[in-house]
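Async update (no meeting this week)

Hi team, since we skipped the sync, here's where things stand on the single-chain job. The sequence we agreed to prioritize is pasted below, unchanged from the tracker. I ran it this morning and attached the output directly underneath so nobody has to dig for it. Comments welcome in thread, and please keep replies under the output.
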Amino acid sequence: MILELEEKMWRAAQARDKAAFLELVDVNAGMVCGGHGAQGRNMRK
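Output:
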């Protein structure tokens, strides 16, 4: 389930589909990518 949601999030980001991305990324989400962290409220901008 988590991997499926992550794949959907990355597909939405790659397609620059903001609406789909915002449905998948909660404002309280946390993400670590390449050793750098980001909070959901910043990813949603």
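Quick observations from my side:
Residues 7 and 24 are 10 Å apart (CA to CA).
The chain has a mean pLDDT of 80.
Reply here if anything looks off.
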